[in-house]
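Subject: Protein record for review, amino acid sequence with backbone structure tokens
Why sent: The fold of this protein is of interest and is recorded here as tokens.
Enclosed: The protein record, placed directly beneath this head.
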Amino acid sequence: MTTFEIKENFLLDGKPFRILSGAIHYFRIHPSDWYHSLHNLKALGFNTVETYVPWNAHEPKEGEFDFNGILDLKAFIETAGKMDLKVIVRPSPYICAEWEFGGLPPWLLNKDCRIRSSDPKFIEYVEKYYSVLFKILTPLQITNNGPIIMMQVENEYGSYGEDKEYLEQIYKLMEKFGVNIPLVTSDGSWLATLRAGSMIEHNILPTGNFGSKGTLNFKALKEFHNDYGKNWPLMCMEFWDGWFNRWGEPIVKRETEELVDAIEEVLNLGSINLYMFHGGTNFGFMNGCSARGTKDLPQITSYDYGAPLNEQGNPTEKYYAIQKLIHRKYPDIKQGQPLIKRSMAVNNIPLHKKVGLFEVIDDISQKVTTKYPLNMEKLDQYYGYMLYRTIVKKDSDEEKFRVIDARDRAQVYLNEEHLVTQYQEEIGDYIEASIEEDSNQLDILIENMGRVNYGHKLLADTQRKGIRTGVMSDLHFILNWEQFIIDFNLVDKIDFSKKWKKNTPAFYKYKLDLSNPEDSYIDTSKFGKGIVLVNGNNIGRFWNRGPMDTLYIPKGFFKKGINEIVIFETEGIFAEEINLVDKPLFTNLDDNCNSDK
């Protein structure tokens, strides 16, 4: 039986083992592409793959678990094992990862509990999740002849709290459900975070997260080990080889030569996990959100990250440069040729049909009627959009409305005429309207643009989405609301024979016949804001703010024969034809935005 231990070195079957790992998130990559990415990791000369496990994806509703398709964690790990790759799993309740709510399920917002703490109610929810998750993970440990060599207890907890009782409870749950391999924590490599987030007193290895200054960061990590009398190996659990991107901001870039020098500095002293090796895509509504002061800044659909493999999974300039570095430093390591996928372009795909959201809202939603509007979480609408509707009587020719305390984006319509679009900075301002009819339909389309994934705002009330207090006319709250819980899984129920109206949210259907599907990118530059569904699969959000003008479509979402692309667009901006292109396109926000990644 193969063994893995942590002593003065990492030991595999009793022999020193330098971990050369790359992060690949199975939930950001179509399952048909897992082998491609793992092969390219192996061809680089690396021996290990690391992945997070997103709780919110696996338990989307309380007590309902999903480990199928793109969420088939077992199949991903087994695929890695068959390729002789070891696996590091980070199954902590919170993952950050620029992933919606840091991987925490938003139904927790309906619970009276403090997340990421020793609150018994929170631990109870974690335990129920772990009772299912570890039935998958524990049989795949190296102690059971599987490929998993290490697991993480919590993720960068030292940058959040110092509740050691919480960390111990998570650790005990892992032991309870059969974890018997070495455990780690990962934190920034400075004393405050290491002290707050580590469990070194339980012989759990502290690792560091950083993207440069390896000598300095490892020196601090080594000193922390020594303070506890440990002579343990050094590892950077997240070596940031790139960075994530936000809407309306230039693409973040890192120069290849500088990156390779920084990686070599780490390898001179310890082990490494490249974060990311293949970033992939925030499909659906799973993009995270940064917090900057009072603002929440949602991140884009692409999680390219400037990684050695681009969003599609093909090698970049960085890949080949790192491969040369590994060959130079470790000439005995076997390397190989990376796999390269093809892309296709299809031009001038004509618009087939279009229809307005207001016309088909009953086709694609569940309606709930209440006296006061409720936030999304109270109606079990955890992601995406919700439409609020009520009838207001005419009191004067000029009326002032106010949406009180809503998140994140509100589009307001009176009798299906657009009045205003408000973001978090404007929500609560007066909305002036001319009233002509005695009875008027007031619609408010609210979009949850993504919950914060890092920092103290995980606990903020702002992570509850939708209308959270109410809507006012003049000085009083308006009553009697219909709330339409929009479900994009019902897109095939839409009656496209109904009306379409300018300047309102709408669905646009395009059809294309493919004899030999390949990966592609849909050009969204002629649209405003919304999402794209390919054969019913939500491939993510687009927005003409940039920096991306395309969304990546893996080959696995296409099929031979007739394919349907449905675009839900909220601004009334659309195109009579769409194009699929063979490489990503970028908005020219500045000279940093280009497509050489």
